[in-house]
Amino acid sequence: MPVIPRPGKIIAIHLNYVSRADQRGRRPAAPSYFFKPSSSVGVSGGTVERPAGTELLAFEGEIALVIGAPARRVGIADAWSHVASVTAANDLGLYDLRANDKGSNVRSKGGDGYTPLGPGLIDASHVDPAALRVRAWVNGELRQDDSTSGLLFPLPRLIADLSQHFTLETGDVILTGTPAGSSVIVPGDVVEIEVDAPDAEGAPTSGRLATTVTQGDVPFDAALGSLPAVDDLQRSEAWGSREAAGLPPAPAASPASAASPASASPRTGDSLGTGRSGENPPVSGESPVPAGARMLSPELRAKLEAAPTASLSSQLRKRGLRSCFIDGVHANLPGSRIVGPARTLRFIPAREDLFAAHGGGYNAQKRTFDAVAEGEVVVIEARGDCGAGTLGDILALRAKTRGAAGVVTDGAVRDFAAVAEMGLPVFSKGPHPSVLGRLHVPWESDVTIACGGAAVQPGDIIVGDGDGVLVIPPGIAEEVADAALAQEEEDAWVAEQVADGNALEGLFPMNAEWRAAYDARERS
Predict the structure, then answer these.
(1) Number of helices (H), then strands (E), in the chain
(2) Which of 41, 227, 363, 515 has its C-alpha lying 20 to 30 A from 153's C-alpha?
(3) By its UniProt entry, which Pfam families does this protein fall under (predicted)?
(4) pLDDT digits (tens, 9 = 90+) for 36-47
(5) Is the peptide bond prior to 119 cis by the omega test (within 30 degrees of 0)?
């Protein structure tokens, strides 16, 4: 008999481990879920069938929570007290049916035996929900090894979140996500999953949950519903990578698609929760452009690094763009300059309940600094409020380590001297010792924000120097840079004439006579 004979509900989260999110190239701003039927529960030592005509059955080692006391609208602080037990789970799925149900996973995850649990139960009251470990082996080879310290959304948050929508009843099971390492299994493979608390007294463990894959011989009936279908996308995600699936590397993105945030397709679901005909809509806060996709060509970067913001601002104004200046920010390093595409982060005003739900754990602030790509600029909306820090030395070090070009915030910076000492250019309103929770809740990333009175979209080009910081729409960046450099050359010539004793009248700006002299100089 299974350890939980017949759960009333089995609720699974699509994506919850940093390692898995990085493997998938997307990080959701909030948890999303799907249901599995109670008939999918299996036992340790049992079998699971790969249906006839399919190829992509995948295992997912997970930590399962068993509800012990009904939970309805419980807070995060009280949520864990509603969990009776922790055990191992294998959230099996069939990628061949991934696209058929548009993210619901009814068929791809709902097969008989697709949720084996056990073999033992760990008393939840004796373990720290932030210190649980899950491991998976295939034919004795370790494939997954991660802990709840690497979750996007802590376990108590999942319980509190779900309980605000419906009652979690005694015996319900919550599957809390799988780390990187999930892959395809074939008939004859034996998968083992173990959950334990290695740092708790007695190091309690679920024991190893063993499942053997068998081959089915009854095909699906085309007259009744859609048939299994696979393509290279399904194969690469089922196996974990194109290389593991035996596929050639994906073609490089074109410069046009790499520069356009609208060209990407971020999703909140895990690999079986999405598909070409089964994708979920984008959720606000999730990155519309994957890390590394927003890139400046070396040639354009060099032009923008050579062009002063004063000249760039003039050229933007000539093109009708008068609201592209981020007001009130100054560089922590005199003489520093930043150039790069924007990766945005938005803070909202502090409110205790919202900070409890969004301020802790792997919040939007940490996700942003973990995702910033080489050459990008983190731009933070802090509503111009400099009464608390928007980043400190640890986050600055993370940005520098990842190769960020710098940070711009219309708020304050903690550990100001330490940040300056590490050499990361930061444009801010100055220092403040308080942590962000005093004033801010890290709310969402890679969305359009307002920073210092300027609208900033992900992928906008940020240029900063001693005169301030500008936001340049990427579509006109090359044109503006070329015009600004031409203006610099012209201004340098005018300065020579002034130094020679010529009056400003007619020279600055140039009248027809001086213009002719300048043009003749260029021809000569």
Answers:
(1) 13, 26
(2) 41
(3) FAA_hydrolase (PF01557), RraA-like (PF03737)
(4) 999 999 999 999
(5) yes
Distance CA 494, CA 514 (A): 9
**Distance separating alpha carbons of residues 199 and 130, to the nearest angstrom:** 11
pTM comes to 0.54
What does 330-362 look like in DSSP terms, one character per residue?
EESSTT--EEEEEEEEEEEE--HHHHHHHTSSS
Both 128 and 227 in a single domain? yes
CA distance 4 to 18: 29
Ordered alpha helix ranges (H), 173-275: 232-239, 255-259
**pLDDT of the residue at 280:** 34
Last residue of some domain: 440, 459, 477?
A: 477
* Residue reference for tokens 């598909």: 275
Distance CA 466, CA 309 (A): 8
CA dihedral (94, 184, 239, 284) positive or negative: positive
Neighbours of 258 (CB within 10 A): 19
444 in Cβ contact with 284 (< 8 Å): yes
Domain that residue 322 falls in:
298-477
Whether residue 450 has pLDDT greater than 90: yes
Q: In 378-441, which residue ranges form alpha helices assigned H by DSSP?
A: 393-401, 416-421
Residue 262 has pLDDT above 70, yes or no: no
Collapse the DSSP code of 217 into the 3-class scheme (helix H, G, I; strand E, B; otherwise coil) and give the result.
Answer: coil
* Structure-block tokens of residue 130: 């932030």
Q: Tokens 């909140």: give the residue.
A: 268
Is the alpha carbon torsion for 121, 123, 124, 127 positive or negative? negative
Tokens of 263: 């060209």
Are residue 341 and residue 231 in the same domain, yes or no?
no
Task: Let me know whether 216 and 364 are in one domain.
Answer: no
CB burial readout 61-83, b (16+ within 10 A) else e: bbbbbbbbeebeebebeebbebb
**What pLDDT digit, counting tens, does each position of 202-230 carry?**
999 999 999 999 998 888 887 777 778 88
416 pLDDT more than 90: yes
Is there a single domain that holds both residue 231 and residue 303?
A: no
Mean pLDDT of the 160-183 span? 96
Q: How many structural domains comprise the chain?
A: 2
SS3 sequence, 362-375?
A: CCHHHHHHHHCCCC
Please check whether residue 78 is in contact with residue 141, taking contact to mean a CB–CB distance below 8 angstroms: no
Whether 371 is covered by a domain: the verdict is: yes
Q: What is the CATH number of the domain that holds 445?
A: 3.50.30.40
